[in-house]
Amino acid sequence: MMTTAATESGAALALEGVSRTYGATTRSRGGAPALDGVDLVVPRGRFVAVMGPSGSGKSTLLRCAAGLERPTAGTVRIGGTDLATLKAAGLTRLRRDRVGFVFQSLNLVSALNVRENVTLPLLLAGAREGRELDGRALAGLAAVGLADRAEDAPENLSGGQRQRVAIARALVNEPEVVFADEPTAALDPVTAAGVLALLRRAVDERGRTVVLVTHDPVAAAWTDEAVFLERGRLVGRLDRPDEAGVRAALGAPTERHLAVAR
Questions:
Q1: What are the residues whose beta carbons fall under 8 Å from the beta carbon of 242, sequence distance 6 or more?
Q2: Which class in CATH covers the domain with range 5-257?
């Protein structure tokens, strides 16, 4: 987990010494930052799970890594771009053009149909409406098995189908990194497996990079690597995680049972 220049050169995402401390609320809990000197490199074409107990800093790491929050200290790079060098408008463009998001809450626009929801990132990036745009949306929906629901309203779909639309929307602009925050938390096991399989295919077949924040060992078993946070620090990792290994890691003292990140 070293963050050397050579390692970072091929990285989709690189965090170096990233800390995030909030205001009086955090200090009232003893002054521990939400993130504390996190180093993490995610190579292109990698599927990585970020895990840890509630309050360990998982969601804060995702927000800082995606440019949704500025870290208190340290450096975040997406595809070699140092986010600290970007002003607010530049960060907005980066998130729009080079990052995809899949959230538990979905954030689909109810006033738009399924196809229009998928084309939305392209329209915001300046693409013109027309056959080419619709073709890209339909291709994305076909990849998630929903081409026949393109004209439906989101509320007419099941929870799993809506999440698949969210994945199609996240991938339509061919982002450098897709951030997925507990995307299967509200789904039944069979539907969740289908969603995770789509993310796995995006990595294996399309070369996308996916960072998955999850509490679920079953979800982590779909990834190439699981990294573990504890009290804001990156304390360990597992290559090719399986469900049993992740459960053991989460249930055991991290310093003894995980490969300590150096």
A1: 221
A2: alpha beta
Per DSSP, the three-state class of 174 is: coil
Q: pLDDT by residue (tens digit) across 42-72?
A: 999 999 999 999 899 999 999 999 999 999 9
Give whole-number Cα distances, 35 to 11, 13, 235, 246, in Å.
21, 17, 12, 22
Measured between its terminal Cα atoms, the distance across the chain in Å is 6
pLDDT in tens, 139-198: 999 999 999 999 999 999 999 999 999 999 999 999 999 999 999 988 999 999 999 999
Strand partners, 73: 19
Nearest to 103 by CA among 61, 62, 158, 49: 62
Residues 210 and 133: beta-carbon distance below 8 Å: no
| Tens-place pLDDT, residues 194-205 | 999 999 999 999
All residues at 6 or more sequence positions from 129 whose CB lies less than 8 Å from its CB, including other chains: 119, 123
- Sheet with 177-181: list strands edge to edge: 99-103, 177-181, 210-213, 47-51, 225-230, 233-239
- The SS3 assignment for 179 reads strand
| Structure tokens that stand for 246 in this block | 């992740």
What are the backbone dihedrals phi and psi of residue 156, each rounded to the nearest 5 degrees, phi first? -85, 0
Instruction: Report domain extents, the chain.
Output: 5-257
Please answer whether residues 196 and 223 qualify as being in contact, where contact means their C-beta atoms are separated by less than 8 angstroms: no
List 211's β-bridge partners, or say none. 48, 179
Residue 259: DSSP 8-state: B
